[in-house]
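Show me a record, fold above all:
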Amino acid sequence: MRPYLAVVMDSFRSAFASRILWIAFLAIWLLLAALAPIGFQEVYTTRFRGEELSNGTQLKAMLARGLIDPQEEGTALGRLSAAMPGSLKKQLRTVARQNTPIQKWALADGLNRALDDESWYDQEAWQGTIRLTELKELDKLSEKQITEDQRRRRARLRIEAALPGGLIPRPSRSINLSYAGFAFPVDFPVTKKQFLVLVNQYVIPVMMDWLLGFILVFLGILVTASIIPEMLQPGSLHLLVSKPISRFGLLIAKYIGGCTFVLLCVCQLVVGLWAIAAWRLELWNPAILWCIPVAVFLFAVYFSVSLLAGLQWRSPILSIGVTCLFGGFVLVVGIFGGYFDQFVTGPEQISSMVKSADQLLVTTRGRQLRVFNDQANGWDDLFDKESVRRRDLLVRPVAISDDVFVSAKISGGQYNLYGNGTLEMLVLDRRADYKPIPLLPVPNGTRQFLVFGDQLLAMNNAGLLATPVSSVLQRIETERARLDDQGDDSESEEEAAEANSEVTDQDLQAVNQMEQLAWTQDLVGNLFRMQGGAVEEFQPILPEEIQLVEPLAATVAAGGKWLVLYSRGRLFWFGQPAPSSDQTTLELIGQLELPGSDAARTRLAASGQQVLVARADEPVRWLDLASGKLVGEIEVGSRDSVIDVSTLADKPVAENDVASSGRFAVLTSDGTLHLVERQGDALAARTLGLDDVHSIDFDSDSQRLLVAHDIDQVEIVAVASDGSLLSDRSIRATPAGWRKVDSWVMEPLRTLTPQTGELSETVAGLVSGRGSSAIERGFGDAEVRRYRIWRPVLSCGMFIVAIMSLSCFLFVRRDF
């Protein structure tokens, strides 16, 4: 063993003689010294930011209505609108007539000015607004007890209460970074827990990519490239081989010596960064030290190439050049692989599903609506490609009959839920090959359709609006009959012309009636529609005292008899009006305020009177609506977020039995599917046998679970009592277009090429203890990133074994 250790130490002496090494050491020490003064503190979330105003259309319509509607004078909305700066009020007064565009920063600046001057506040005016628990607690503080930060926080909550639904919710605390005691001018609207998660999952992988994966690896190659060429010098090689050591052992010892040298550099940097994170950022996470072996392993990949080039050409310059060329090739393959992930396979992933009879419709991450074609064994696109390129938001379709689905597409809705104009319902009829056909206007900002009894519900930030399903179906038949009659004889054309003249007369009469209305009322009506209020067909059905606030979620429970609604930490459940009643307003049966973060993204599922509430980064809560109490909560998965939930049995056992013990399917961000059920008084969770799952849904007619996995594959299964999956149908769509290139070219190429760029995902998974991350994108959605933890380790390990085997073969066989 001593001869091999002597060879390793000889590699050290050769490396330590390099000036580049000492320059790297000095750079590491200076970097650690520069980062040492960084710190943070947790402060109240007060200021409004432009990105919080994603519902800008709704917000400006609300403020404009507060200015021009006489009925709003003296209300919370009216008083707040009157406190806006003069230039902003001038723009707001023209919104109803011209839909004047207003920059988000201007709206945010107007709201921020109101934080400092609270002359707009009146206790009586705010009595009718939604007052969160935090606001109630701050209102109890006297002017002597309250701090300046608490006062500004209270002012912000009062503004949010006056503008329900107009702002994306933010946590009550934000992170403010500081350097040497000087606070940064910008706060990060995340909690301390979220901040630490972001450091683990994003900051440390970035450090791995650049500090360890690029700079140190490049410097390490510069320093160690001369080890093999110097060893091959006649005097050095003869001296080494004269010792009781094999050529194979000699080469491996030199390789280990080069890697051990890099280990010293990496240890200084990583241990120093870990100490700073623990001391200054309160991030006591020893898993950060995983960066050390991963970084050395990364260097070992490139050093193996440098070693092989040194054996072949005996030149340090050529070793560095060949290694750089290899690194460039790996980088190009990684860039193309990321391109295919983002623009080819990513947009193809199924985000939601709906089944009616034997037909399956899906939406994708790329905002495409598709129907499965059995004959071609593939998915048919229902939107043209140009339509998909726009940043539209696609509302999940729902079935209103065996042959008809309805959906909507919000133009520009990815960045503005209320889009760029009016919104129309899209009808997808089997008889028309599911070609999307606009039918009737729906409320602006509609994010979800639900079928509740004979009502088609449209939910947006402004409320819940409904129209009879029978009316929609009748209108579809009328529209089909009109289209069928277009090619008839002249008599039919005369009838159509006469009908058109009647419609024109009716339009003129309507115009005359509108001209008789007060001008102010007309503008107010425009503003109501702009902010998502009632339209001709859809009318509000929520009680007046119920106002919706982000985040929102809704589902149907008790076998279709109850509607469950979640709004900013509060759960409501409603029943339908009595058949003999003339009222259309839903009957409020009960409500419950939930503990925890009320700003977190939320998912709902109902089975009988049992409801599962899943909020991001919180335990799953099981509620019994019959008693109105929390049954219990359970952690599902390891540390990954819950991104979707679905019932597994929503039909009552008997005709009059709406209670059920309930079972639910829960999908976590790492793509694992779980079964959650009650076992006596306790809750239990277990893993179901499917991986890489993207979305789930439940078909109440067939009582089957729909599971989308592996990009665009679908399983229709029944879940047995023991948790086993009984497959009814498997959809294995044949890849087409660029998907074929990805399957036949990119995937084999990425498999054969060491995926050094993906080692940062290995670090993110090891440091955070998670297999994925889920970042909220607003409107209840989340962007999920699943880490490839072991794939890059396997590909890089196989590459090292292959290259080092080749190097050993050349060194043993060739006479140097």
About this structure: Residues 489-519, 652-660 have pLDDT under 50 and may be disordered. Residues 572 and 591 are 4 Å apart (CA to CA). DSSP finds 22 helices and 33 strands in the chain. The first strand starts at residue 38 and ends at 44.
